[in-house]
Design a protein that fits this description.
- There is one protein chain.
- The chain is an alpha+beta fold.
- It folds into 2 domains: about 5-50, no CATH class; about 80-150.
- It contains 4 helices and 4 strands.
- The protein has helices at about 5-20, 45-50, 85-95, 130-145; strands at about 80, 105-110, 115-120, 150.
């Protein structure tokens, strides 16, 4: 499908939503003869065209060079800079150490900037109401302790 056809369809959809039909008339879709067929007439021809002839494969026995470990970025006060996903994994790792914490169905969202915070949510039926309340009550202490060692990277 050509870009003109996609653009015309997109413009027509937007125009119908907004109630105007100004640009949709100026861009006409190309005739059907110009559009290439999307499916081959014979399935065997399509597979034969995709699969190349067998050629000898060269293998190198040398192992690939290992990537250097990522550099740990620190703030001026010595805290480690981590993205929100990294902090969320740290919080989840600490919460998993608690008794009866669910193996699946819990997610942590980290938000804020200088004084970041974390919020925990549970999927339905992943834990009981009492356990979820207990885990939520443990979050402020855990976040307070982690803030001393970790800063949110923006």
């Amino acid at each position: 499908m050509s870009d003109d056809v996609k653009d015309a369809g997109l413009v027509a959809m937007i125009s119908s939503i907004l109630g105007g039909n100004k640009r949709a008339d100026s861009v006409a879709p190309p005739p059907l003869a110009e559009v290439p067929p999307t499916a081959p007439s014979n399935g065997f021809d399509a597979v034969a065209a995709i699969v190349p002839e067998a050629s000898p494969v060269k293998r190198e026995d040398a192992p690939a060079p290992a990537a250097p470990p990522p550099k740990i970025t620190r703030t001026a006060d010595g805290r480690q800079l981590l993205p929100a996903e990294g902090i969320a994994e740290l919080v989840l790792g600490e919460l998993r150490k608690l008794e009866d914490f669910p193996a699946t169905g819990a997610s942590v969202t980290v938000y804020g900037y200088r004084h970041w915070n974390a919020m925990i949510t549970f999927a339905p039926f992943s834990t009981s109401f009492q356990n979820a309340t207990r885990f939520r009550q443990a979050m402020p202490d855990l976040v307070f302790k982690l803030r001393r060692f970790v800063a949110l990277e923006i």
